[in-house]
């Protein structure tokens, strides 16, 4: 019985050792795929799919300003116009104790917490391009350190008014 137990234990140890040896030669590749396919009736998408994920506004020491951001969007609404607004109110950069205001415009229209037309019906029906720009207010001399900001722009498909 003892002989069988020792033999079984040694076989288990050998199997475990060989599987560890094989594991040392493993290679892995994690793949994450995302595909966002818009509808043909309505979409508002940045040309650069990475826009908004990790943007940086660099500080210019000569002018004392932050660089602005600009991104071109593809816009289409075959059944009316496109309105936009900033969810939750005005956007800003924060450092925990104070803020720097951000002015966000889409297609030349400054966005606020209230929805407003940014692309009219005639322009959005065939599809068009429009720029989003984000400009920071000039930081005060006392504003320094790391500032961050997160905000969401909502785009609404507004149907045509029926006569």
Describe this structure in words.
It comes from Pseudomonas canavaninivorans. Residues 1-23 form the signal peptide. InterPro entries: Fimbrial_CS1-type. This is Fimbrial protein. With 163 residues, this protein is α+β, with helices and mostly antiparallel strands. The chain has two helices and eleven strands, in the order H-E-E-E-E-E-E-E-E-E-H-E-E. It has helices at 2-23, 121-124, and strands at 42-46, 59-60, 65-66, 69-77, 80-86, 92-94, 99-106, 109-110, 116-119, 128-136, 153-159. The strands form three sheets. Strands 1, 4, 6, 7, 8 and 10 form a six-stranded antiparallel beta sheet that branches. It has a three-stranded antiparallel beta sheet with strand order 9-5-11. The chain is flat. It starts with a helix and ends with a strand.
Characterize this entry briefly:
The chain has 163 residues and is an alpha+beta fold.
């Amino acid at each position: 019985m003892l002989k069988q137990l020792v033999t079984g234990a040694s076989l288990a140890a050998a199997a475990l050792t060989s599987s560890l040896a094989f594991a040392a030669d493993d290679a892995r590749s994690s793949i994450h795929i995302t595909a966002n396919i818009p509808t043909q009736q309505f979409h508002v998408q940045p040309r650069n799919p990475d826009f908004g994920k990790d943007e940086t506004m660099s500080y210019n020491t000569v002018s004392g300003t932050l660089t602005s951001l600009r991104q071109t969007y593809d816009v289409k609404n075959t059944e009316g116009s496109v309105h936009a607004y900033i969810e939750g109110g005005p956007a800003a950069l924060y450092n925990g104790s104070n803020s720097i205001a951000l002015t966000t415009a889409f297609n030349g229209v400054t966005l606020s917490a209230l929805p407003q037309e940014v692309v009219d019906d005639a322009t959005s029906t065939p599809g068009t391009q429009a720029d989003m720009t984000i400009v920071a207010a000039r930081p005060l001399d006392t504003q320094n350190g790391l500032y961050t900001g997160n905000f969401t722009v909502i785009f609404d498909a507004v149907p045509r008014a029926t006569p």
